[in-house]
From TrEMBL:
The keyword Membrane does not apply. The keyword Zinc does not apply. It holds the Pfam family LRR_4. Keywords: Leucine-rich repeat, Repeat. InterPro entries: Leu-rich_rpt, Leu-rich_rpt_4, LRR_dom_sf, SDS22/Internalin_LRR. This is Protein phosphatase 1 regulatory subunit 42.
Amino acid sequence: MVKLTSKFIEKKYAQVRSKSLSTANKKQELWKLTHLYMNGMFINEIGNFAACKNLKVIYLQDNNISRIENLHFATNLTHLYMQHNKIRKLENLDCLQNLRKLYMGYNCISVIEGLENIENLIELHVENQFLTLGETLCFEPRSAVTLSKCLKRLNISNNKMTTLNDIANFNELEILEAKNNLFEDIEDLTQTISTLISLRELYMNGNPVVQKHRYKESLIANSNTLVNLDGKSISDICRKFLQIFKEKRFNQSIKKMTVPLTDDIANSLNLPPAFKKSICRAIFQHPGPKLSITVTSAMGELQPQSFPSWKMAAGINSLKDNHITPRPFWRDTSNKKETHRVNSMNNKSIMLPPI
């Protein structure tokens, strides 16, 4: 078991310089250190090395560290390299307010958290996390809010991710590496990309979505700043052409969605086809006084429409006792009353035959 402490650092630096130092010189040397190279030292625990107060860069990659701790003194730290360790949680980083680049790739992190106070972070590398079955990398909301205001480069490749919703509205993000994940919904992807207003480079190689029809065209048309997609440059002419094409397709889709009001009303009644035609004719094809009502279309909009009054409908047959007598719509001809003639009989006796 190797623990990172001030004594361990003194020992390693003495071996490199091949000379022993006095106690005063040791403290002075540790205080002057700005870059600490402890990568590949089989370290599995971070102890107390607060004597190195002026550290700006720490290299701790390729060790066996399982927890981030004892970094509260490193307020001047700008770069922290801890990839290829066994870290499961981002923690104890609140004091690193000057941290600008954090490298945590090839660990066991499933949630990006503990960064809500790191307001100067411009690069975050969390690629290739060793996740258990069913786990996927996600962002804790408070950390996501902070990162959305400062982060310029993000590497989340190979983390079993299925959506980019967690990083929507990352307004400062310029470079996004999201290779070898499980993105396959092109609409979900384009919706998020359209919110990244500073994005210049996007890498999506190795995702199922790249096989979708017009994948590149959709992404380019939904981003005004993208200049490099999967390693290929994008010209302004190409972007403008695809954006114009997108607008035309959108306008065409709106026209196709417009349904005549007659069909809209008849469909909403859920009637047989033959009956629908009769209803449409009865409502719209007869001139005369109109009755104005409001009809809700299938698009959810209220549209005022005028309909013929009842007195002018074709089903009216006649007036009877000053009342309107409707005629059934399935009868085309009116019923004619049969006239009965009564034959007057003469007052004559009828002779019966003799018995």
